[in-house]
Amino acid sequence: MTPTPSATPAGRKAFGWSWSQKAMLALLLGYAIWALSTMGVSAERLGSGGAAAARFLGLMFPPELGKMDELWQGIKETMQIAVLATAIGIVLSLPVGLMSASNMAPAPLRAVGRTLIAVCRALHPVISAILFVKAVGFGPLAGILSLVVATVGFVGKLFADAIEEISPKPIEAIRATGASFMNVVLFGVLPQVISRFVGFTTYQLDSNLRNSTMVGIVGAGGIGGVLFAAFLRYEYNFVFTILATVIAIIVAGELVVNAVRKALHV
Amino acid sequence: MSELAATSSTPVQWERFTPGQRLLRYGLWLFCIWAIAQSVRHIEVIPEFLYDAPEQMADMLGRMWPVDWAYYQPDVHQGLMETLHMATLGTVLSLGLALPLGVMVAPNVTKSRLLNMIARVILVSSRSVNSLVWAMLFVAIFGPGPLAGMFAIALRSVGFVGKLMGEALEQTPQGSIEALQATGAGKFAQLWYGYWPQIKPAFWSVALLRWDINVRESGVLGLVGAGGIGVVLNTSIDLFQWDRVALVLITIFTVVALAEIVVLQIRKRVL
Q: At what angle do helices A223-232 and A236-264 cross, to 10 degrees?
């Protein structure tokens, strides 16, 4: 049975590529080739990289298990940095978030809050860690300070956005009773955003834990310093142990948080 | 007596939480307080450094002024271009790697539990290792330079993009898929004609978001030798040329802000 001509317009294919899509693809391909050539990448270098990668992976096995003390010290410090940075950062992002929400604060105050958030967000944790290491010296303090900045940037922004989305009616009702500003915040604003706030906090704790491995590389305390030292000593099997431990802790943390959230229905 | 009558007239006691949940909540609060107390007690913070900090910061900022604008050409500019190439090529590479992993991790597309698990482990590992750590690994493999940075960006992004792609695939409405299956379409045809058109907006939105993040991240990879503007930053810090550090920081801020504006505009116009 042959289809009627009207059912299949000549040469038209369903979900085919339009010429603009093809042009975009060609453009992307051209860009990739040009960019790779400016970066000095050649097929030969990629090939030698493959062999090096195989040798590198070989050096990682068997994992070093004899340095549990050093590993534990680093992990403990990393966890302490993450906990303190999250706690301080959360406390600071409460006022910053309130300040930056358009339905809670007047315009001049809001401008200050939003600028503060923008600056905190623009500073990559590693860059702020470098600056803090120069300012307060090597050690966990620099790591805590830089992660506090990151936390204020992230949680402050999300918190401000969450406050802007709340329903104004409970606030008006509480204001009508003659409540003070603090009471409006405590009984009108917080109950509406608290569950999202808990979500941001657990997410930020998780990401601070990941990032505290990174700030150690520039000397701001934690497991990152141990990792970098092992790298510089070419102890790749110890590097593997550290990475596996970090991954295990993060996965375990995620499972615990998910279980708790399920149990509490938040 | 009257109280008893009141409770008996309302047989249903409304409670927000079950006793178990309430116990869990108090336990969690206690745990949080315990964790903070432990951290405060054991972390080695030298108080003198803390008192000293504002002074030191002021001193550092003082040295950053005036900014050495003349340094921009050619060193900073070249580093900046390298950073942008690393971020873009890394993102493209990660999109290519993330699509098969996303398909593998979605249980409604890939039926095998084992494959789901393998893909999930790969994605979680990718996200848990920081881009700076990935960069160190690739510097050990390829030697210092932007090639290592590109791979670091790609492998770090795979976890993020793959996870979101997997979630998008899982949430795809099944109507058109069932229609395709009824015609006897193969696995590939189902993916290409059934799933892809439905997850395409999510895909491009994730790609844009990740590119924005990658521009930020690629700026610091040079600290461990993986090319880009971070190399210039590292050199200037090591040589205590704070006026040049200030220039590099301003450049990074500007590019990060521009990337965000570009992404916002594309998102508004296209998606």
A: 160
**ipTM for the assembly:** 0.78
Would you say B166 and B118 are in contact if contact means Cβ atoms under 8 Å apart? no
DSSP B69: G
CA distance linking residue A248 with residue A117, whole number of Å:
32
Whether B3 has a pLDDT exceeding 60, the answer reads no
Q: Which two tokens stand for residue B264?
A: 């916002």
Closest Cβ opposite residue A217 in set B85, B146, B224: B224
Tell me if residue B155 falls in helix, strand or coil.
helix
Residues contacting B203, CB < 8 A, separation 6+: B95, B165, B168
Q: What is the DSSP string of chain A?
A: -PPPTTTS-TT--TTPPPHHHHHHHHHHHHHHHHHHHHTT--HHHHHHHHHHHHHHHHHH-SPP-S-HHHHHHHHHHHHHHHHHHHHHHHHHHHHHHHHH-TTTS-HHHHHHHHHHHHHHHHS-HHHHHHHHHHHH-SSHHHHHHHHHHHHHHHHHHHHHHHHHTS-SHHHHHHHHTT--HHHHIIIIIHHHHHHHHHHHHHHHHHHHHHHHHHHGGGTSSSHHHHHHHHHHTT-HHHHHHHHHHHHHHHHHHHHHHHHHHHHHT-
> What one-letter code names the amino acid at B187?
K
Candidates A27, A141, A204, A227: best to mutate against B (most CBs of B within 10 A) is A141
The per-residue pLDDT string of chain A (266 residues; one tens digit each, 9 = 90 and over) reads 445 444 455 555 666 677 888 888 898 888 888 888 877 777 777 777 778 888 888 887 787 777 888 888 889 889 999 999 999 999 999 999 989 988 888 888 899 999 899 888 888 888 889 888 888 888 888 899 999 999 999 999 999 989 888 888 888 898 899 888 888 888 888 888 888 888 888 888 888 888 888 888 888 888 888 888 888 888 888 888 988 898 888 888 888 888 887 877 66
Instruction: List, in sequence order, every beta strand (DSSP E) within B172-256.
Output: none
Average pLDDT over residues B27-47: 85
Distance from CA of A108 to the nearest CA of B (A): 22
d(CA A29, CA A50): 23
**Residues of A whose CB is below 8 A from B21:** 263-264
Q: How far apart are CA B166 and CA B196, in angstroms?
A: 12
Return residues 192-211 of A near B (CB < 8 Å): 210-211
By Cβ distance, the residue of A28, A213, A264 closest to B24 is A264
* B120: Cβ contacts below 8 Å, ≥ 6 apart: B105
CA dihedral A96, A99, A102, A104 (to 10 degrees): 120
What pTM does this model have? Answer: 0.81
* Burial class, A78, CB count within 10 angstroms (exposed 0-12 / middle 13-18 / buried 19+): buried
pLDDT at B1: 45
